[in-house]
Structure formats: structure tokens, C-alpha cells
From TrEMBL:
Residues 56-172 form the Phospholipid/glycerol acyltransferase domain. GO terms for molecular function: acyltransferase activity. This is Phospholipid/glycerol acyltransferase domain-containing protein. It comes from Bdellovibrio bacteriovorus. SMART domains: PlsC. InterPro entries: P_lipid/glycerol_AcTrfase_prd, Plipid/glycerol_acylTrfase. It comes from the Bacteria. GO terms for cellular component: membrane. PANTHER family: MONOACYLGLYCEROL_DIACYLGLYCEROL O-ACYLTRANSFERASE, TRANSMEMBRANE PROTEIN 68.
Amino acid sequence: MKNFLQKPNEKIFGLRNLDRDTLIFRVLPRFLLEILRKYFRLEITGAENIPRRGPVIIAPNHSGYTGFDAFLLGHIVQEEARRVPRVLTHHFWFLTETTAIPAQKMGFTEATFENGMNALKKGNAIVLFPEGEQGNFKPTSERYQLQEFKRGFVRMALESQCPIVPAIILGAEETHINLKKLKFTKFLKGSVIPLPLNIVPLPAKWRIHFLEPIYLPYKPSAVNDSELVHEIAQDIQEKMQVAIKEELSKRGNPFL
């Protein structure tokens, strides 16, 4: 008993046998994500719509400016679908080694067409936010209004012949309040930045809903039809906007 109390980590958690990187970039993030999952009282529906194997693009709405939605969605896909997704994230994470190395070790990949295609060709699931930074950094006054979708995710789906699973995330808009999107900072390596009201996340209730997979009935050569690609992206955006409106109508006060 005395030995048990003196070495709780070794006896209970087995942390002594873990290397530093595993502890910092695997164990600790999972622990923190589970805390966030409880804090946000996260509800998940439609996880059965995520294919259990083969390439797939999971395309969620983007909001909250901190990237909590990317962290939590990647965690949920791993927990619910038993897949380790490649989360394609903002290039800001990869500007310096200080941020790039931790991001890569946590499973993040810079959001480029080439990186997405490489992951899909290997049969992986990827998480890609079609709105990009414009969705993530939009002001709270425009909450749940989808910004124009970029077309890269459609081109990836056509070229790899994989399905797209749209995902609706509610709660992130209320968790972090953004007063304004500072467009004059565009000179910072092509980035815009938010003007946040709070850093500590507010306890809004989150809900993540995965829609049914979309299988595009076109051959890979359709990737060269820019008009068609644009039309598909618009159709998916409209479909997701309708779904967001429906999900919002079902929920009450996000803080209750």
C-alpha cells in the first residue's frame, strides 16, 4: 500500500513508460479534449454517416477563431468513427518551426491541395473547412452565416472520387465572441486576424451533426470544369446553410 501511494502515476497511469513526445502531443491533448467535451456538454449526431474506411472529406462550418472546432472535430471523428483524420489547418500554424512541429505531431497538416490529395490517395479521412479563415474569423454579428466556400475540397473529391461528409457545428460561435475581422492585416503573409472579446471560452453547449455523405456523380476529368466545380461548392454550401438553420431551430438557449 505504501508503494502504491508513493508512485500513483506508475501504478495507475503507466506514465513512467511514456516518452516525452507521446505524453505532450498524444496523452495530454486527449485529456484536455475530453475536458472540453464535458465543459461544452457536447452532443454528437449522425456519426454513422462517416465511412469507416476509404478516403473521405469531412467538411464542417468554421467559427470561433481559436480553432477549438478543428481540435474537437478531429477528436470526435477518432472516437466515434475509429479513424484518425488528417486535419488540414491554417497556414499560420506552419510559418515557424515553433508552431509547425507541435502542429504536425498533433496530426495537423497545412491546408494545401497537394497535402489533401496525398492523404486521400492513402485512403485517409481528412477534415477540411471550406470557408477557410473567412469563416473562422468572421464577426459574431454574422454568426452561422456561411462565408463563400472555396472550391479546393470539391476538386479533391472529384479527383480522388471520394465522398464528402458535411458537418454542422453549433456552439463555437457563442464560445468565443469576435467583434470584428481586421482586414487591414492582410499583409501578414496573406492572413486576416480577429478582434476577440474573450479568450477564456464561454460555456456554450456544443452540438456536432454529420450529414449524409455526398457522392459526386462525375468522373475525375470534371475537375477541369471550373463552372461545374463552383456550382457543386455552392450547392453544398446551400445544403449546409439549410441544415444549420434547422439545427438552430431545435436548440434553445445555448448557455442553459
